[in-house]
Amino acid sequence: MASEDLFRNEYSEEPDLGQDIRKDEEMNIETAEHDTNDVEQATGQNSTNSSPNVDLPAATSPAQTKPNAVTNGNKPSEHEHDAKLTQLPMARIRNIMKLDPDLQIASNEAVFAVTKAVELFIESLAREAYTYTAQAKKKTIQKRDVDLAISAVDSLMFLDGALNF
Amino acid sequence: MVERIEDLNLPNAVIARLIKEALPEGSNVSKEARAAIAKAASVFAIFITSSSTALAHKQNHRTITAKDILQTLNELDFESFVPSLTQDLEVYRKMVKDKKESKANNKKDVSAGDAAASSSSAAVAADNEDAT
User: Fold this and answer.
1) C-alpha to C-alpha distance for B54 and B61, rounded to whole angstroms
2) Which of A135, B41, B52, B67 is surrounded by the most beta carbons within 10 Å?
3) Predicted-complex ipTM score
4) Interface test with B, best of A61, A105, A139, A144 (most B CBs within 10 A)
């Protein structure tokens, strides 16, 4: 009983003394994987964060991506493909666009715009479907979630019936 | 043109990565759901194209441009895509311009040079295709 109280008191003074103890603990954990410098920076920046290793990968990943003239001003989501602006192949998108019999000429910029739009579309459809996955307290998106998203969102009406394969 | 029907499918690995990027950590996608999203993406591409083609024809344009695509997206309730796309287009235009210039000055940067060489030759091929 008495020892428990003491123990609590020790940790209730955390803002002053406890921080140093925790810092040491964190350093011990982190030195196994990272530079002590990194850890010190991380703990210094947000000492209230009990797990600085969450921040570290985010801090190191931009450094890993090589600065490239092509990717200047690029979005972080594309850092895996330094030389490419699109993740989907533009040639494939052009082939799909050519299925339209009325299409005569599509400028390269138009193909690029469609490619990017399709990428955004995939991301937003996935997010929309995931709301139904989360509602069902699940972690894995099922086809049913995609169908629900499509029938719920007006702008996705064009997909109605297109996916029944 | 299209030789095999698979040439119209979008690459699965890229689709999977795009979906994963959009979702919170720890979430997953079933195979069927991923296939459905991939198919939806292809249909979306056709949908946007045919709407843009109709728009261009209305204005007596033979070539569909990025502007047509953006206008179409606005009309079809995908206006949320437009700001990000406009930004990307600027980067793309700059890249094409830089590529032309660096091609004239010979290739300097090795890593950028490789990518530039392959994609610019693709772009040239596409231009030739357009012209015919």
Assistant:
1) 10
2) B52
3) 0.78
4) A105
